[in-house]
Design brief:
Structural class: alpha/beta
Number of helices: 20
Distance between the termini: 47 Å
Strand order of the largest sheet: 3-4-5-6
Strand content: 5-15%
Number of strands: 6
Oligomer: single chain
Largest sheet: 4 strands, mixed
Radius of gyration: 29 Å
Shape: elongated
Order of helices and strands: HHHEHHHHHHHEHHHHHHHEEHEHEH
Helix content: 55-70%
């Protein structure tokens, strides 16, 4: 087993800082706040997937508790998510919940395999502008998800949301011992219950479970036909889950100025989904909205993640009747606050846009537009990366320079090529030489260039062939070791397209 896999298998260590009491208060209260925010989200995602709310709620409990020990990013929250629900909704509609559970387990196994093959290293190829677009798109989606809860609602709902936002933003100015979103939830719940204010509450979202989850195998035939049905969905779940989790981990790294083990996080997500499946839940991954609630509340350790899952179970099983009376307006206020603090406002300031290269802004806008249009963060990130690749290829395609001189006696022409030569930059290389008027001997100096691919070797072959057709010889000089090796292996074996 590779050394990269070893950190995943080590026992999670909890380092309790001093003073202990403030640390515990911060971590536990943050976990409680996240648990309250998870309930309506998990129910909503269960509805999207076409399953009973218990499937999403129990999945969130198992994933949050397991990832606290298995994951590589402390303070990050993983649970049932909307993106994963969208992937499996067609499977549930056509084959039922049993196949969903089987697909969840298989997706977890795929994620573990991908983790040990180094999938986390691909994060280095995601540009900063895509990450900014990812964050901004998520903030927009979080806000859009709240609109149905207040648009067209009675004025009392608007008043409660306004009061909640006032508490959330105003309380920290005078009191910071308890997270202000938690105070807003408790205050608004007490007000609606005490004064009998009739507004939509958590109980209206769906029935909360009254029992504990239990281990069981998925109710499906264990044969190749079943594998053929669930495999495509499992691959989609694995890809979407890893992308969202690794992107969220990077966001938390930046927000907390710390580093995390992405390989361990990827493997932890996989093992967590296997456990979720055996407990009858739907696949989950990192939730950046709830993660930002946790981080903005001051949480920095695995204890907050574990307590979020633990409190979630207590709230839905033991205190379900009380939780059901929490007004949705209170949770909407919290999520609107999360949306506002998640959005990178600096990225859209006129001063920033004026200084930022146009290509970077285009990449960010493309990421946001694709994500908001599809409600799928994975598609948005993929679109952003593609646009970034095209922009980069267009940019570097024009940084290759060819300068030529002829020696005094006119018997030799010398060209100097400068830049990185690959498929985008070398396509026009063949048109940079004067084949008709150059003398019989031509030297092309590649000392300040690098040959990256077969397309460039093909271009060099085409240049040599054009001179040879006119009875002239070409000598390539100055190739560095790797460029000379590639040129030596491929030169003459490629059919030039020029």
């Amino acid at each position: 087993m590779s050394s990269a896999a070893l950190p995943v298998l080590r026992r999670a260590r909890f380092t309790l800082p001093r003073p202990l009491v403030p640390f515990l208060r911060t971590e536990l209260l943050a976990g409680l706040l996240v648990a309250l925010a998870l309930i309506p989200e998990a129910i909503a995602f269960s509805i999207i997937a076409g399953v009973d709310p218990r499937v999403g709620l129990f999945a969130s409990f198992v994933m949050a508790c397991s990832i606290a020990f298995l994951g590589g990013r402390p303070a990050m929250i993983s649970a049932a998510t909307g993106a994963m629900a969208l992937v499996v909704a067609p499977l549930v509609a056509s084959h039922g919940v049993g196949y969903l559970i089987a697909a969840t387990i298989l997706a977890g196994l795929f994620q573990v395999v991908l983790a040990f093959t180094g999938i986390a290293k691909l994060m280095r190829f995601i540009p900063r502008s895509v990450l900014t677009g990812f964050i901004n798109a998520l903030a927009i989606l979080i806000f859009m998800a709240q609109i149905p809860h207040f648009w067209g609602a009675d004025w009392t709902v608007w008043a409660l949301i306004g009061a909640g936002l006032a508490v959330i933003w105003g309380l920290p100015l005078v009191f910071k011992a308890v997270p202000s979103p938690l105070v807003a939830i408790v205050t608004l719940t007490a007000a609606t219950v005490s004064f009998g204010i009739a507004v939509p509450n958590v109980g209206d979202m769906g029935e909360l479970p009254s029992g504990l989850p239990f281990l069981a195998l998925p109710d499906v035939p264990f044969d190749l036909d079943t594998l053929g049905v669930i495999a495509p969905y499992a691959i989609g779940l694995a890809a979407v889950g890893l992308l969202e989790s690794l992107m969220t981990a990077k966001v938390v790294d930046d927000a907390t100025d710390t580093r995390s083990n992405k390989t361990r996080e990827a493997a932890g997500q996989g093992i967590g989904n296997v456990l979720v499946g055996f407990f009858g839940g739907m696949a989950g991954c990192a939730m950046i909205g709830q993660t930002m609630i946790n981080v903005k509340s001051g949480a920095r350790s695995r204890l907050s993640t574990f307590s979020a899952g633990f409190f979630l179970l207590i709230l839905i099983v033991v205190l379900g009747d009380l939780v059901a009376r929490i007004p949705m307006a209170a949770l909407v206020a919290v999520m609107v606050f999360v949306s506002a603090v998640t959005f990178d406002w600096h990225s859209i300031r006129p001063r920033t846009l004026k200084r930022m290269p146009v290509s970077e802004t285009v990449v960010m806008v493309a990421t946001v537009a694709a994500t908001v249009a599809t409600h799928n963060l994975a598609i948005g990130v993929g679109a952003g990366v593609i646009v970034a690749m095209v922009a980069f290829a267009r940019k570097v395609a024009h940084v290759v320079e060819v300068t030529g001189v002829t020696d005094p006696d006119g018997s030799t022409a010398v060209y100097a090529v400068t830049g990185q030569l690959f498929f985008a930059s070398s396509n026009d290389l063949v048109h940079c030489f004067d084949y008709e008027n150059d003398p019989a001997e031509v030297v092309i100096d590649l000392s300040d260039a690098h040959v990256w691919d077969a397309s460039t070797v093909s271009s060099l072959d085409a240049i040599e062939a054009k001179y040879a057709a006119r009875g002239k010889t070409v000598e390539f000089v100055g190739l560095n070791r790797s460029s000379a090796k590639l040129h030596g292996e491929l030169s003459g074996s490629l059919t030039s397209a020029h």
